[in-house]
Amino acid sequence: MKLSMIRSACGSLRIHPARPGSRVSGFPRRCLPVGPAHGRIFIRAASATSSGGTKQKLADNFGQLSQKEDGLESDSVLRDVIQSTEEAMLALQRGNPSVQPLLAIIQAGKDDSLLEVNKKMAEMIGINVIQICLSKECSEDEIVEEVLKLNEDPRVHGVYLHLPPASLTNRVLSTLKPEKDVDGISDLNVGRLVRGDLSKGFVPPIASAVLYLLEKHDTPLEGKSVLLVGGEEPLVVSLQCLIERNGMVALKSHWSSKSLQRQMMQADAVVLLGAGNTDVPPTWVRPGAAVICCEPTLETDEDATEMSSKPGLGYLTAAYRTQNVVRSCSRWLKEQQYRPWHLRSLKLQPMTPVPSDIEISRAQTPKPVDQLAEEIGLLPEELEAYGRSKAKVRLSLLDRLHKQPDGKYVLVAGITPTPLGEGKSTVIIGLVQALSAHLKLNSFACLRQPSQGPTFGVKGGAAGGGYAQVIPMEEFNLHLTGDIHAITAANNLLAAAIDARMLHEATQSDKALFNRLVPSVNGVRRFSPIQISRLRRLGINKIDPASLSPQEVSAFVRLDLDPSKITWQRVVDTNDRFLRKITVGQASTEKGQIRETGFDIAVASEIMAILALADSLEDMKNRLARMVVGTSRSGQPVTAEDLGVSGALAVLMKDAIKPTLMQTLEGTPVFVHAGPFANIAHGNSSVLADKLALKLVGRDGFVVTEAGFGADIGMEKFFNIKCRASGLRPNVVVLVATVRALKMHGGGPNVSAGAPLPREYIDENLSLVAGGSHSNLRKQIQIAHLFGVPVVVAVNVFKTDTQAEIDLVCQIAKECGASDAVPCNHWAQGGQGSLELAQAVNEAASKPSNFQFLYNTEMPIVEKIKTIARKVYGADDIELSPEAKAKIDYYNQQGYGTLPICMAKTHLSLSHMPDKKGVPTGFVLPIRDVRASIGAGFIYPLVGTMSTMPGLPTRPCFYDIDLDPVTEEITGLF
Q1: Does residue 916 have an active-site annotation?
Q2: Are 779 and 917 in contact (CB under 8 A)?
Q3: What's 839-904 look like in SS3?
């Protein structure tokens, strides 16, 4: 009999025993010991390319293992496996030098021999190993807990369950992710092997080792019989499949079989599996037969040396295991690459007349959000589901696809809004449905999250309408994933911190304040990191609290906020006019600290603007820290970081920074994220949603995002503020217009909410259409051209529009410089009704864009304001109030003069006068005040009177909203 034996030792590796509460060679904290029953060892392998290269390394390693036994060289048995794995490892790291494959071993009790074998193989190949030693009596729950941790750790590429057979329960095996099951024992991997599909699964290492030894037998075994004795079913099944697939005949027997001796004598090869194999006398095996013993934990019986291949099999099994780990890592890296879309669109069956929005929404069953995510190339670990039809998407996607080229960037803006509504959100949804579901071009819609204020007030939701909607529309419009609630909590925590700090400073001495701000814990005083940051800003380079002088202590503990110059207000996401001005501090416990303040609606919070402009969690945290909440009595700005609260704000916002994935009626993807007020903030959805979507759609795809209000407000801020923050450059502007709104801009009568429409808006009136098109529509096209971006006009068709009116708008729009102008019927037909728009956008996006900013941020604040007023609004000049002038001087002194400008102006007119429609001329723009959102990163001049807290009308929307307690269906939402 020719058998493989390996007895000599390999070179050692660095072994770092884990200590509770510490990190081991950069491994995550959760992989450290958690109790006396657990022990972990992390082994970091040497680089596969070190010490003279691969060939020399292999030669050194095999020099230690080389041994001949009965004419069969042990190094020849291992060489092919290790060398092929080495080559795969080098190829993997050539393209990904920072990636280091990692094998995790979970075992019950301590088994140093197993660790030694695996660490030797790890050093040869260049992979890392972590050994998790549970107690011998570990429970199923303990095993499952460890497996779940390893499943979710992206640095772990393989998991080896070195456990007693009784511990390998169905629950344990089904918990282990098949893609990390490098021992091939899960049901899915065994099934793949049986089916012959190994593109994703793994062959059990011991099965590969046995097959290799059978193939190395000096007598060819093709067509011969191989007897498998004993063993657990997954291994036996795997071996049987492999043996038969390689031209041999596989037979099975049990240790208790009465005919075992006869079966062994008749077999050309015998594979002994499981306990009991040392009881087989050598006389039971016929001369020349191959015998492979698969019980590596037992010592070799010197009397049965001819039958024992145990030591060799242990090393060979470990070699195949490392090969599977490298293969798993390679597959993982391929999974990280960009995935082409396989989007399954949902069919629409439009009805006439068009039902209500909520009826249409409920008639369509959305795809499960995890299915949608898979279709657009998201990985399971990048998704955080909130129910069945919406999910947060993790920002790690940006790292994974950082080399992926961006798609085309489309901004949807509108003419100056009217009470009749233009339907920008509906146009966006119709456009992406046409692009993805009908033209088969990847596209993403990026929308703002609607505020509860307008939903229950006068406007209603913002999910689109008709057959161009985001679904489920109730979830879209109500709470969603809680981002606005997180903003409310963070904003009001900061407001509470302001008033509390003022109270404590007013009622305590410097020493008392210092002792409370820097308390003694176990006899030791330490500054927190955020307090050290404040000391640095004060120019105090000390970290020992006892070393501060009395003057330094006073500077540190006293923010000395001027109550009359606090700019930070509380927020609530409800239209509540009676909170516009309030008085706080009237309780006797507040010791006379009474002051006037007020509430804004939550979407007007600077934190909402920050959420929309941040491009990472770190960036958001830094912006939150920079927020200025007021001014000290000495005239210095006081920030959230000065109050010590910015870290807590980031904690409250850590989930809100992730965009929410939803879908349209036709199953195309939508990101819903942020919803900053379009008057005092920039009114655009988030930078992060756009960036994630641009990576997902791919080079030839489209991301369609929205600017609030008219092009003079939302689009100007999108270009000058959002594009500066993001570095993104748009390819096309889609300018939304309606015949009805153009009639109003052309001189049509005013419209009152709830009153019947005047006949001018129902009957054909080409004169009014022409007047509005030559004035407001022309001006908005010209504004877009100021930035060098081509314009496609989308005429959102209503049933009262005539063909002559639609044709006239399209004709004038082209005459005014639009690349194209097309009618859109998405409200009644879904994506099919916006095909012409999708084709026009696709064509315009293929042309070069000459994007430019309207102004240089180095210009003085006054000149930037004048540039916007003159070039965008058409004003002759600006007029600054004394207060505005003083504020500008102050911001220049504080170094804020280079921030972009975010004009706070009525959206109902190009001027500051809401009733002036069309294109007003000959006016001077009055600037009554200038304020700053330092965290968000812009200066906002106030034009006229701007309310940041809307009020409820006489008959709000909530009169019609109700819930059926039996079906839980919402009625009357729209």
Answers
A1: no
A2: no
A3: HHHHHHHCCCCCCCCCCCCCCCHHHHHHHHHHHHHCCCEEEECHHHHHHHHHHHHCCCCCCCECCE
CB 660 within 8 A of CB 472: no
Rounded CA gap, 229 and 332, in Å?
A: 36
Exposure on the CB side of residue 249, measured as CA atoms within 13 A: 7
Has 671 been annotated as catalytic?
no
* Catalytic annotation present for 501: no
DSSP letter string over 29-93?
GGGS--STT-EEEEEEPPPTT-SSHHHHHHHHHHHHH--EETTEEHHHHHHHHHHHHHHHHHHHH
Write down the catalytic residue from 709, 718, 719, 923.
Answer: 709
Distance between CA atoms of residues 706 and 426, nearest Å? 11
Closest by alpha carbon to 415, among 742, 18, 163?
A: 742
pLDDT one-digit tens code per residue, 352-364: 999 988 889 989 9
**Which residue of the set 459, 565, 814, 871 is catalytic?**
459
Specify the residue for token string 């190993």.
129
State residue 110's pLDDT score: 73
Report the 10 Å Cβ neighbour count for 331.
15
| Cα first-last separation, the chain | 84
- For residues 870 and 667, give the distance between their C-alpha atoms in angstroms, rounded to a whole number: 44
Report the alpha-carbon distance of residue 474 to residue 453 in Å, rounded: 15
Residue type, position 714, single letter: G
Distance CA 401, CA 699 (A): 12
Contact 14/320 with Cβ under 8 angstroms?
Answer: no
State the pairing for strand pair 669-672/443-447: parallel
- 556: Cα separation from own chain's centroid: 38
Judged by average pLDDT, the poorest of 257-266, 272-281, 905-914, 955-964 is 272-281
Catalytic residue among 62, 444, 568, 798: 798
User: Which residue, 653, 728, 648, 720, is CA-closest to 688?
Assistant: 728
SS3 at position 407: coil
CA–CA distance from 188 to each of 175, 177, 224, 234, 672 (Å)?
Answer: 11, 10, 30, 11, 36
- What gap in Å lies between CA 685 and CA 708, rounded to an integer? 9
* Active-site entry in 57, 180, 310, 424: 424
Where does the pLDDT of residue 75 fall: very low under 50, low under 70, confident under 90, or very high at 90 and above? low
Handedness of CA 720, 725, 731, 736 (dihedral sign): negative
Within 714-777, where are the H helices? 716-717, 723-726, 739-745, 766-772
For residue 798, indicate whether it is catalytic.
yes
Specify the pairing of strand 791-796 against strand 820-824: parallel
Instruction: State yes or no: is 640 an active-site residue.
Output: no
Q: Across the strands, what pairs with 938? A: 933
Longest Cα pair distance anywhere in the chain, in angstroms?
113
How do residues 366-410 score in pLDDT, each as one tens digit? 999 999 999 999 999 999 999 999 999 999 999 999 999 999 999
Between CA 429 and CA 834 the distance in angstroms is 9
Q: Distance between CA atoms of 416 and 498, rounded to whole angstroms?
A: 39
User: Taking Cα atoms as reference points, which of 797, 818, 800 lies closest to residue 735?
Assistant: 818
> What's the helix, strand, coil split of the chain in %, to 5?
45, 15, 40
The pLDDT assigned to 801 comes to 95
944: phi > 0 → left, psi -120 to 50 → alpha, else beta; which? left
Q: Provide the 8-state DSSP code for 24.
A: B
Active-site residue, from 678, 821, 838, 840: 678
The answer to whether 370 and 339 are in contact (CB under 8 A) is no
Q: In the numeric block, which tokens belong to residue 952? A: 């409820």
More confident site: 535 or 419:
535
Give the separation between CA 661 and CA 672, rounded to whole angstroms: 6
């069956």: which residue's tokens?
Answer: 349
